[in-house]
Amino acid sequence: MITPTSLLYPDAFLSPLAIDEAVQRALDEDLGRAGDITSLATIPEATRAQAILVARQSGVIAGLPLALATLQKLSPDIELRAHVRDAARVARGQHVLTISGPARAILTAERTALNFVGRLSGIATLTADYVARTEGTKMRICCTRKTTPGLRALEKYAVRCGGGFNHRFGLDDAILIKDNHIAVAGGIRPVLERARAHAGHLVKIEIEVDTLAQLREVLDSGMADAVLLDNMDLAMLREAVRINEGRLELEASGGVTLDSIAAIAATGVDYASAGALTHSAPNFDCALDIEA
């Protein structure tokens, strides 16, 4: 029996609870109080059907566990054959899933299932495009917290399916000191002193800088683990790498696009974060076709 977890990308965690919660919320939104009145009115209860989930473009698939969970929540009699699993690269026209079972359940689940696969595959495909342009360098491409409210765990999972890496999942899993923190706290050294006094021994501290002078101040303090280089041009990034001499992890942020990512990777920074991976990924074109 195929279960949602059997379709997950094995190198990225996505909680079954997160899958169930997202699917239930999406179905509640779509079914409202009266359910799928179109299918109820037009399709006899005993009717069965077979459908194919088809990729209408090439790219990287993600979200199949959510599509399956959507179908199974509407009917325990759904049978499914998976031709790929999440993180697989597919060609245009390729069959992704074969679904058979009660026709009403398939038709009712169609849009919700496609929404999950289209959204998450779009993120995975865009991430893979970024990653491909950094091949041969040490740099890792990371997502940010610029995610769709309520879907962060899913979207960050999709980034991993595309070969990217995750930044913070929330405000609670690392200390990232931004320019406004520095301004309110009274400067780089005071804010780092407070952060270091507060942080547990397993909590990393990253601080944002936008000048090389600030980078030197951070290095001299000896209190940070990583530095976010905010909106620095390529020359500044190269100089930052030289000044750092491998002491701290360096992350480029701001202005990170498909057109610029290769040049940023060539500067020698360790990471580049791009909000576009999640907030600007185009929807992946896929369809559910009923077989006559």
Notes on the protein architecture:
- By secondary structure, the chain is an alpha/beta fold.
- It folds into 2 domains: 4-131 and 281-291, Quinolinate phosphoribosyl transferase, N-terminal domain (Aldehyde Oxidoreductase, domain 3); 174-274, TIM Barrel, CATH 3.20.20.
- It is 42% helix and 18% strand.
- It contains 11 helices and 12 strands.
- It has helices spanning 16-31, 37-42, 64-74, 103-132, 152-161, 179-185, 188-198, 212-221, 234-244, 261-266, 276-279, and strands at residues 48-55, 59-60, 79-82, 89-90, 95-102, 140-142, 175-177, 205-209, 226-230, 249-253, 271-273, 286-291.
- The strands form 3 sheets. Strands 6-11-10-9-8-7 form a 6-stranded parallel sheet. Strands 3-5-1-12 form a 4-stranded antiparallel sheet, with helices on one face. A two-stranded antiparallel ribbon has the order 2-4.
- Helix 9 links the parallel strand 9 and strand 10.
- Helix 1 (16-31) crosses helix 3 and helix 3 runs antiparallel to helix 4.
- It is elongated.
Q: Give the CATH class of the largest domain.
A: Alpha Beta
Distance between the termini: 25 Å
Strand order of the largest sheet: 6-11-10-9-8-7
Overall mean pLDDT score?
A: 97
The CATH topology of the largest domain comes to: Aldehyde Oxidoreductase, domain 3
Number of helices in the DSSP assignment: 11
Amount of beta strand? 15-25%
Catalogue the unreliable spans.
none
Element order: H for helix, E for strand? HHEEHEEEHEHEHHEHEHEHEHE
Number of strands: 12
How many distinct folded domains?
2
Major sheet summary line: 6 strands, parallel
Instruction: Give the class from helix and strand content and strand pairing.
Output: alpha/beta
* CATH homology-level superfamily of the largest domain: Quinolinate phosphoribosyl transferase, N-terminal domain
Radius of gyration: 23 Å
Specify the CATH architecture of the largest domain.
Alpha-Beta Complex
Helix content: 40-55%
Shape: elongated
